[in-house]
């Protein structure tokens, strides 16, 4: 089975998930914003949080939307303002996931995000969702990814 972990990470939690899945045989593709996000957390909350609230599709740097080589695509997003992160809004808009087995890994401070899950259900009702609380700080929770 061929699997891809397609993800965004601003502060390393998504990278911890990527390392774990890479060791399990997944290919890994990290997306990057075309524009640098603010460095300070306060300004990230203002800008990224606000944009996530309006479901903004962040322009990406050199994004490769071709996932045709994979049967399974796992999409990883931090939770911003209760929603999917803006780079992952773009991934969902630009990537043809028809016929793929799709699952999501969300990572957040609280470990819950109903609105982000609703966003996913609206476009991919059959996708499994695993939600981890700060996996960089709690690597023991990465074992839950065996559900994928
Ligand atoms: C702009 C912004 C908004 C956030 N909003 C939430 C939120 O609504 N709920 C939550 O539990 N965590 C929130 N967080 C925390 C992140 O979701 C959490 O730290 C996540 O693990 C970060 O993943 P990353 O390190 O891969 O970027 C927010 C972080 C940022 C930067």
- Strand segment count: 6
Overall shape: it is globular
**CATH architectural label:** 3-Layer(aba) Sandwich
Strand residue content: 15-25%
Give the CATH topology.
Answer: Rossmann fold
Q: Give the C-alpha Rg.
A: 14 Å
Instruction: Give the overall pLDDT as a whole number.
Output: 97
| CATH homology group | Flavodoxin domain
Counting DSSP H or I runs of 4 or more residues, the number of helices is 4
Write up this protein.
There is one protein chain. By secondary structure, this protein is of the alpha/beta class. The protein has a single domain, classed as Flavodoxin domain (Rossmann fold). The chain is built from 4 helices and 6 strands; from the N terminus they run E-H-E-H-E-E-H-E-H-E. Strands 1, 2, 3, 4, 5 and 6 form a 6-stranded mixed sheet that branches. Strand 3 and strand 4 form a beta hairpin. The longest helix has 13 residues. It is globular, with a radius of gyration of 14 Å. 33% of the residues are buried. The model has no long low-confidence stretch (mean pLDDT 97). The structure holds flavin mononucleotide (FMN). The site of flavin mononucleotide has 20 residues, from helix 1, helix 2, strand 3 and strand 5.
Which features characterize this protein?
alpha/beta, Rossmann fold, 29% helix, binds flavin mononucleotide
Outline of this structure?
By secondary structure, the protein is of the alpha/beta class.
Secondary structure topology:
Layout: E1 3-7, H1 13-23, E2 27-30, H2 41-53, E3 72-80, E4 83-84, H3 86-94, E5 101-108, H4 114-123, E6 128-133
Parallel strand pairs: 1-2, 1-3, 3-5, 5-6
Antiparallel strand pairs: 3-4
The protein binds flavin mononucleotide.
Residues 9-14, 44-45, 48-49, 78-82, 107-110, 134 line the site of flavin mononucleotide.
């Amino acid at each position: 089975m061929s699997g891809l972990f397609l993800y965004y990470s601003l502060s390393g939690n998504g990278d911890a998930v990527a390392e774990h899945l890479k060791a399990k045989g997944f290919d890994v593709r990290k997306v990057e914003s075309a524009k640098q996000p603010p460095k300070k957390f306060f300004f990230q909350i203002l800008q990224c949080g606000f944009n996530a609230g309006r479901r903004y599709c962040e322009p990406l740097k050199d994004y490769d939307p071709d996932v045709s080589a994979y049967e399974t695509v796992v999409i990883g997003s931090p939770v911003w303002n209760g929603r999917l992160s803006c780079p992952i809004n773009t991934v969902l808009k630009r990537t043809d996931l028809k016929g793929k087995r799709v699952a999501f890994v969300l990572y957040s401070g609280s470990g819950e995000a109903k609105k982000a899950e609703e966003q996913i259900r609206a476009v991919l009702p059959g996708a499994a969702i695993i939600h981890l609380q700060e996996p960089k700080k709690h690597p023991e929770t990465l074992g839950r990814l065996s559900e994928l």
